[in-house]
Amino acid sequence: MKPLIDALTWTRHSRTVARTFQSAVSRVSETAGAPAVSKGCRSGNRRCSRSRDLRGAGCPRSQPGVDEVFRPKLGALLLIAALYTISFLLPCAQAQPSDSNKKQFSLLRTQAEQGDAKAQNELGELLRLGRLGVATNDVEAVKWFRKAAEQGIASAQHRLGVAFYHGEGGLPRDWQEAIHWFRKASEQGYAKAQFCLGYILDQNSANVEARAEAREWHHKAANQGYALAQEQLGLAYLWGFGGPKDPAKALKWLRKAADQGSPIAHAHLGIIYQRGEGVPKDFAEALKWLRKAAELGWVSAQLELGKMFAEGEGVPQNLAEAMKYYRMAADYGDSGAQRELGVRFAEGNGVPTNNVSAYLWFDLAARSLQDAVNRRTTLAKQMTPEQIAEAKRLSALFVPRKVPSEESPW
């Protein structure tokens, strides 16, 4: 096979990389006041949206001045520029599969073609993930998953169910087919499939029997130690999904999920103690669980803590702590928190008045909140063109932080 990188390709990419680095250094020199790279929240499926509904959208908070927050050292940004440039080079420098990988892939395909169910499943997984130097190929992966699934391999049945659920690998989106394959894998005790089957059945909220069955499947997966099922089961008992509420059981399953690092479980344990859901109100215990959820990147917990400290709800009022948690939420891209930061800087509420910072946060929040658009327009009348330009520059550099994701069964 022709090597991926021959001399001509290497020369071409080397020139491109050199130009990219030179351009990056120039941009960095011009933008030494860029905001720190920030992370974003996980996508909202129905499970996530329920879990995040703790109190409300955003609460007031503030931050240090622009000069403190948005002017990291030039050396650090030069390093970022270098890493950014290298990212263009790495794909070019990737070697073709080794002889060992080629032999392993060839052997696996031969075994799969001879009807070996385990080999068919492994080949499907290899093609799905692009391992052994082989490019990802969803259509081929699904083909081999189907062959393995028809021979009773539970993990292949689960993957085929996922493909039907999402409409991947050339398959139509078909929930009935997804349920069919999830059920086959679930009956073999495959925890991920049990969770997925329970999840789909739970979405059929008009069918009481389906939601009750969903709870049963989540029980089976939770009893095997599957954290997502423990989390979902805890929420089902907390809110009464698929059966009566049971705060004691909610506490039990949410604690088990929290022990495995679930931020959703931590956040809801905090709310249980804060509101006294089946337990005596305990703000110290609520604070412990909410802090951990906030540290794990759960935005609703960050907002809740900000509100508690800003208003002195169950804790001594502490604006510095409130600012810390509201800023966390804003950095994760929460528009409500960004709007409140704008309000605080515009009004000098808890922080010195800073119109550039206020405009910056209103500008970010304005992407989804009309009130922030209106406040930004009003504030602009009090600012110089230079101040507005600086705030817009900082806003353009903002990148929301990303929450570390849990292992997905999908």
Task: Give a structural overview.
It is built from 21 helices and no strands. By secondary structure, it is mainly α. α11 crosses α12, α16 (299-311) packs antiparallel against α17 and α19 crosses α21 (385-397).
Helices, strands, pairings?
Blueprint lengths: L6 H24 L15 H7 L13 H4 L4 H20 L5 H15 L3 H13 L8 H13 L3 H13 L8 H12 L4 H13 L4 H16 L3 H13 L7 H13 L3 H13 L7 H13 L3 H13 L7 H13 L3 H13 L7 H11 L4 H11 L4 H13 L13
Summarize the structure.
With 410 residues, the protein is mainly alpha-helical.
Relevant terms:
about 400 residues; Serine Threonine Protein Phosphatase 5, Tetratricopeptide repeat; mainly alpha; disordered N terminus; 21 helices
Helix content: 55-70%
- Overall pLDDT, averaged? 82
Major sheet summary line: none
Uncertain stretches: 1-53, 55-74, 88-95
Q: How many DSSP H or I helices?
A: 21
- Strand fraction equals under 5%
